[in-house]
Amino acid sequence: MLFAVFLFLVVFSLLVLTHEFGHFIVAKKSGVQVEEFGFGFPPRLFGVKKGETLYSLNLLPLGGFVRLEGEEDIAGGPRSFAAQSAGKRSFIIVAGVVANVITAFMLFSLVHWLGSPIIIQDDTPLPAGVRDIVVRVVEVFPHSPAAEHGLMFGDVIYAFSAKDQRVFIHSMKQVQDFIDAHKGEEITVVIKRGKEIENVLIVPRENPPQGEGAIGIAMLQTGLVSAPWYEALFLGLKTTLVSLGAIVRFLGTFFLSLFGGSPIDGGIAGPVGIATIVVDTERLGLSYLFQLVALLSVNLAVLNVLPIPALDGGRLFFILIEKIRGAPLAPHIPRIIHSIGFIVLIGLLLIVTYWDVVRFL
Prior knowledge:
The protein is an alpha+beta fold. The chain has helices spanning 2-29, 86-114, 145-148, 172-181, 229-260, 271-282, 286-305, 312-325, 332-360; strands at 34-50, 53-68, 116-120, 131-140, 156-162, 165-168, 187-193, 196-202, 217-225. Its main location: membrane.
């Protein structure tokens, strides 16, 4: 559990810091005074001032923040955020989203270079260059022999043995054939979990519940395919664009369901769900973890650009209103609306976290 919390905080903090760094660097380049760049959230532990900016380390390790002069539409000097043109303010706001998209592109490119995960079907030819082919457990059904004996998501089925017979596994068909031939008998399942090899004694059920199989697992055969660095860059860009499109479509469907009164399925996750997914993915290897972090970065980019108060998209929306009106709103109006939006977002986060606890714990 502690490892799950630690890994989640590392991933979440890196993504948020990347987002805030986008705001920071563009604000600096635009001549806006950056008062503080903080790692974590206050209370402050210590800080170092370099030039006009305080670089701080804070107690709560939940990402980071950038504090600009005049960010809350408070009157300031000519270098305050509020004193900048609408275009320059929009550029600074959008920079965080762009930073997350660039991060996703870099991570997806790295994944394609190191080895992109693929699913292999028993009845199809192997793709050229595929390596690290394994059969993985992707689901363990509750109260099944596999669950009772500790098999977990991500375990690699390395071999089976029964009496004097031992079979090394190279395909899902081998798994199915061996289990079918030994129903009601004790067998040894040799699994690889990370760098550890473990032997698990299991008796396959003769009459399992429908859809569960004799030992109670779902599995996939997976492998990795690497590309040269120049091709990996192209594939990284393509994967980033495809991911952006998929997330936008999902959010469109989600909001239509939300406002249409339709039931919402388990397609969203909060902190607990994301932490669980991150830990499960880390067991699969670096390529899988980098791929997940890239997807989370794309998610963060898309969510932040939505026209919701307290998010970057909400701030852009007020700048658009300012351009249409020809004059900014009174400073207290967006401040109040952003505060209300923040409270609503916290409420939604608590609801999603409750769903996570029900589903994952």
